[in-house]
Design goal:
Keywords: Signal. It comes from Amycolatopsis rhabdoformis. This is Lipoprotein. By secondary structure, the protein is of the alpha+beta class. Helices cover about 10% and strands about 25% of the residues. The chain is elongated and about 90 Å long. The N and C termini lie far apart (about 65 Å).
Length: about 170
Amino acid sequence: MRYLTKLVGTGLILATVTACGGQETMATHPASGGDSVAPSGSVTTSPSAMPPAPPNPTGKPRLEVPAGSTPVPAGKVDATALPSGFPHEVYTANGGTILNVRAEEGGCGHALGEAIEQTAQRVVVDLSETKAQTGQMCTMDLRYPYLSVALAAPLGERTVVLKQSPPR
């Protein structure tokens, strides 16, 4: 009798887990070829129908270029001080007073960006990363967020110089 109770209990647990884990909805696995039909009470849209990313006044990193940003021509970006393979995408926004710069971060670190020099000829942007806390477990992944860096005046015809500092 004791084994029968364990067997029935194990069977009920297995049946419950299988039933819950096996349910796949149209929202999690949409049909190929366009918009999907979601179960009652939920809404799904195709990626092309997604609204553009809102402005980023907080300066926190984001993975998409903010809507309304304009790319800075490659000839106006000096990335010679960056390591090989480091991204060097720069966009302007808000009339040229905001630079959206692609940075690199990984694990527990977070990308930082700061305009450390602004002259009539150039703007120097220092890219860095926060240090991980001692004893903290971190993943070994790389992310390439965009950082918003405020300028004192619109970029205009100035060159953007990108440099990298050691983690802080």
